[in-house]
Amino acid sequence: MAVGVVGMISEPEMAGEGDAPQAVDLVSHTDRPPLPGRFGAKPWLWALGAVVVTSAVWAGVLQGTGYGRTAAPDLHGYRIGDSPCTNHNLQPLAGRLGAVSFGQGFPEINRSTALDHVSCQLIGWSTPGDGWTTNYTIAVTVDLHKKTDPAAEFDAASSTERPTPSGGGDSYSSLLLFLDDHARTSHPQGIGDRANLVTGQYRQSLEVRHGGAVFTLTLSGTDDWDSSRGKAPTNADGSPTRPGVTDTSAFGKDLVPTMRSLMRALTQPASSS
Question: Rounded to whole angstroms, how far apart are CA atoms 97 and 128?
C-alpha cells in the first residue's frame, strides 16, 4: 500500500525536475484557442448554415409533392382557330335579324402560353326600303385561360351592373346604350358553369364561363339614313323619326341558343384545307 501511494505521488514529478504538479481544469477551456477549420470563433455561421440546408431540404420535399401548385383550368376541349364570327356559328340569332347581307369585321386573335384570345364581329344590314338602314352588330369575345382559373373573378363580378356600351357609334348612340333603363340581369341555367344574361331595349349581352373558357356574346344595332335621299325625316319637334340605336329587345331570347351553337363550334377540330 505504501509503495502504491508513493508511486502515484511521484508520477507528476516525471514531467520535469523541480516543477510543481499542475491542476487540470475539467470544466473551463476558455484559455484554449478555437479549433481551426470547424467551429472557429463564430458558431452562429454553423447555425445559419444548418437553417439554409434544412430549408433547402424542405423546399425539395414540397416541390416533389406539388405543394402550392394550382392545376391548370379545364378548357373542355375549346380551341381558337379562325374567326368564330360566321353566319353558321351564330345561329339562330343571325337568321332572326332579317338582314339582307352580312360582313365580318377583322378579328383580333392572340395566343400565348397563358391565354388564347379572340374578338370579332358579324355585321348584318337590313334595308326595309324606306330610306333607313339598320346595322346589327353581333360581337364575340372568347378567352381561354390556360394557367389561372378565372372562376373567382367571373363569379365575383357584379351581375347587377348595367353593361357599358361597346366601342363605335356616335356619342348619342353610346348615351342611349348606357342609359338603358330596361336592362335586366338573369342567370340562365344549364349552360357552362355560370352565365349572366343582360337584356335591355338597345343591347343584349350574354357572358358564360365554362372551366377556364370565358365567352361573351352581344347584340346591338344602329339606324342610319340614306343620305342620297336627302335630309332625314324628322318629327314635329325636329328629332329624327328613328333613334340612333335600334330596339333589339325582341332578340334577347336568342342569345342562349346562339351561345350554345358558338361553344359547340369551338370544340370541333380545325378543318383541313
Answer: 12
Q: Secondary structure of the chain: what % helix, strand, coil (to 5)? A: 25, 25, 50
The helices-and-strands tally (H runs, E runs) of the chain is 6, 8
The total number of structural domains that make up the chain: 1
Residue 3 domain flag: no
Q: How many of the other CB atoms lie within 10 Å of CB of 237?
A: 5
Q: Answer whether residue 136 is part of any domain.
A: yes
Return mean pLDDT, the chain. 77
In a domain, 17, yes or no: no
Q: Are 260 and 197 in contact (CB under 8 A)?
A: no
Alpha helices (runs of H) in the chain, residue ranges in sequence order? 2-10, 43-65, 93-96, 151-156, 171-178, 255-265
Answer yes or no: are the C-beta atoms of 107 and 85 closer than 8 Å: yes
**Rg, C-alpha atoms of the chain:** 40
Are 218 and 139 contacting, i.e. CB atoms less than 8 angstroms apart?
A: yes
Q: Can you tell me which residue has the cell 382557330?
A: 81
Q: How far apart are CA 48 and CA 72, in angstroms?
A: 37
Q: Which amino acid is at 140?
A: V
Q: What is the pTM of this model?
A: 0.68
Residues of the domain holding 251: 93-163+171-226+235-265
- For residue 146, the tally of other CB atoms under 10 A from its CB is 14
d(CA 168, CA 223): 13
Residue 118 in domain: yes
Kindly report, residue by residue over 37-75, the tens digit of the pLDDT: 554 555 555 555 555 555 555 555 555 554 555 688 999
Count the neighbouring beta carbons within 10 Å of the beta carbon of residue 154.
17
